[in-house]
Amino acid sequence: MTGEPPSMEDKLADLRLQYAVKIHERVRELQKAIKKLEDVDEDARHKVLVDVRDITHKLAGSGATFGFPEVTTVARQMEHACVDYLDGHGLGVIALEQLLIDASNELNTAAQVKPVGQPSQYVPDIPTRFREPEPTLHNSDRKAALFVMEYDEETMSQVQLEMDHFGFDVRIVDHPSKLIEDFRANGPVDVIVTGLVFDNDETTALRALSIFREDEACRDVPVVAYTLADTMALRLGAVRVGVKAYLVKPVDLADLVVVLDHVTLRHEDEPFHVLIIDDDESLAHHTEAVLQSAGMTTKIILDHQNLFAVLDEFSPELILLDLYMPDVSGEEIATIIRQREEYAGIPIVFLSGEADKDKQLSAMELGGDDFLTKPIQASHLISSVRIRAERFRELRSFMLRDSMTGLFNHTTTKQLLENEIARATRSGGQLALAAIDIDHFKGVNDAYGHAVGDRVIKALSRLLRQRLRSADVIGRMGGEEFAAILSDTGLEEVLSVFDQIRKAFSEIVFHTNDKSFSVTISCGVAVYPQFDSATTLSDAADKALYTAKEAGRNCVVKASG
Fold it and tell me: Which of 121, 310, 363, 544 to pair with 426, CA 20 to 30 A apart?
């Protein structure tokens, strides 16, 4: 019977034990080399001290990381003693040899592993907010819970109807005094939307939210305000009770959904991809365990010879790079990476025990974006990586995504289709492509104007994001045309998924002035390996879409061939 997978603490405990064993092995190597110092010529002595310097430099950077702060202290002393001698102003050979021997004995003592059950320092401090999120599945029954404070009955009904189509489970109260009462009776929510102004008293809702925030379980629930009132006093009061967004009426519900997505859907984002390049296997796996515990996807390179193959396959959003490695320096690796145009913008963060600021700046001039000095607290490492990776993802999105919908643009979608087919070919998996088109979209623009047409496009893009997995590729191919690439998905599943999306979109009611209307979509789907290239797969999905149009629209058709 298979047991539970090891926890992050168990993984780190095992790595710490392995590290302690390696320290004792390194100490034996060091002592053997140090004993030669007095009996060799200056050139040989220089080589020995360079090796000792390099070994102790790595120990100084890694010791405290694994919960051995004394190792870091002693190894740093040994490193500095070697550097001083190599620079020509250190101890004499005999004194240096004795200092290094004594210090290496201290290393052995400092690397003793504490008994089981005794408090240790190796378990990193990782805040709960960094823990790995649950995956998002096709058509998940779990809807984001939306709590609305609204006194206008007509607005209540409209919000209830349309927010349900956008994937929210809506609860509504007509007065802020009922907020906590409902929360306690029916459980927590993902986001609160409030009109702020109730009973002609601008501060009523603010007071209710202030009381609500005093409950520890309610402090982190994001709040979005939409109101007729727009005063500095109200905005300041709203900020003080934790309001994340402040909208002024009239507010289009499609625009409100965009804001709600921004404050609630962060946990559904694809995990950040972080590449770790380090010749120290123990330290690399320690860094990997810490980042994985925060929900990040990682890859380790111990041998730089396969660098480009890993870059092409893994597509990292940040590279953690050791500065000192035996056969190549971190600066050289950074320079090589920057020579490839497609990787010129990826953040490179040096992670090293080097404390000399001039050397840190010199390394960054050759391609680095930041420098983190070992040892570093786990929470600081996670925060630094996340901040850099988020910025890279945001900047990259401007180049890869459609500005109106936030979906991938035409060019990027076609490239990602090539990538997904290549991946499916290697793994022997399935792949589905859907071509989607809004029916009679020109009529919408002609009857209601292009601004309303844009709302329809945004509504469909939002529905696709909500109903598909975060790992699926959704692209806007131009105008009212969309495409979706679903990995590891067969024909029957993709037909079911898009028929549900088709039905849900047809039930959304759009309002403009005194008129209301609904819109439908048509869809054609094709699957790999039945169609075994990007061209044949795209052509098949497009032909199936054309068949759906010819069949009367508002339907999903599978490709034949």
Answer: 544
- Residue 547 domain boundaries: 410-558
* CB distance 80 to 74 below 8 Å: no
Cα–Cα dist 61/355, whole Å: 10
Residues 392 and 488 in one domain: no
Beta-carbon-side half-sphere exposure of residue 342 (alpha carbons within 13 Å) = 7
Could you say which DSSP state residue 129 is in? G
Domain termination site, one of 90, 110, 130: 110
In this structure, the answer to whether residues 418 and 499 fall within a common structural domain is yes
Distances (CA, A) of 110 to 58, 121, 373, 375: 15, 13, 21, 16
The C-alpha angle 298, 301, 306, rounded to 5 degrees, equals 125
Mean pLDDT of 21-48: 81
Mean pLDDT across 527-539:
94
Could you tell me which of 101, 440, 444, 406 has the C-alpha nearest to residue 261? 406
Same domain, residue pair 149 and 253? yes
CA 350/CA 323 separation, integer angstroms: 6
Residues 418 and 340 in one domain: no
Position with higher pLDDT, 141 vs 76 = 76
Q: Which residue has the higher pLDDT, 206 or 141?
A: 206
Instruction: Select the more confidently predicted residue: 40 or 448.
Output: 448
* Strands of the sheet with 243-248, listed across from one edge: 168-173, 144-149, 191-194, 223-227, 243-248
390 and 488 housed in the same domain: no
Say which residues have a Cβ less than 8 Å from residue 376's Cβ, sequence separation at least 6.
65, 351, 384
Please give the model's pTM, rounded to 2 decimal places. 0.57
